[in-house]
Amino acid sequence: MIASVQGEVLAVGGGWVVVAVGGIGLRVEVPAGGRAPQAHTGDHVSLHTSLIVREDSLTLFGFATPAELEVFGHLIAVSGVGPRSALGVLSALTPDEIARAVAAEDEKPFKRVSGIGPKTAKLISVSLAGKLSALGYSEEPPSAGTGGATPSASAAVQLGLTGLGYGEADAAQAVQDAVTAGAPTDEAGLLRAALRLLQSDQTTTRGRGR
Q1: Do residue 9 and residue 57 come from a single domain?
Q2: Of 90, 139, 197, 209, which one has the greatest count of Cβ atoms within 10 A?
């Protein structure tokens, strides 16, 4: 198994580079487009690699980060997704974007990848569910209007605040203001921050009434 390749770039093409290693030029297939490693002839590169062995070929796939290599491994384990298709996904999406799409059960980003049909796109989103959190990515999609807080956390905190006697509109606004101000996005931290804002507003209102 060739786990990594380091050396001078001898040639660069669309979706591949040739790297000099021990007097041998190794061709490495890499993400294309905007996700391609920024390498030019004469540069020194270090790529994390996966060697794919077939009956009629040995193909080396390389990535700039360990995260991309990890996701590549998960993608090629999905039925119907070959190394070329997996490389296409990583040419179009970052590991974090892939994790977010999987968490949201959203196959649309995968459908936009050349060679990935609707059925395969759905299979990717289902097959990768729960497999990317161990890699340190956020698999929770951000809640619209509440920064990085998850929908479940925001809803739970709002419910807790209404249970304490605050109005629904005030509770929702306090949660949104707390997250915008950089409050923790876990339920306990978000609740404390929202309560401080509500109590501060009450103090200000009483002060004005004097």
Answers
A1: yes
A2: 90
Q: Which residues pair with 49 in a beta bridge?
A: 62
Q: What's the rounded Cα separation, in Å, for the pair 99 and 138? A: 7
* 33: its two tokens: 């487009």
CB-based contacts of 67-71 (< 8 A; 24+ apart in sequence): 67/95, 67/135, 67/136, 67/137, 68/31, 68/95, 70/95, 70/135, 71/95, 71/98, 71/132, 71/135
Residue that is written with structure tokens 């990594």 in the block? 4
The string of pLDDT tens digits covering residues 87-126 is: 999 999 988 889 888 888 889 999 989 889 999 999 999 9
Radius of gyration (Cα) for the chain, nearest Å?
Answer: 24
* Chain centre to alpha carbon of residue 17: 25
**19 inside domain:** yes
3-state secondary structure of 145: coil
Kindly state whether residues 81 and 25 are assigned to the same domain: no
Token pair recorded at residue 179? 């997250």
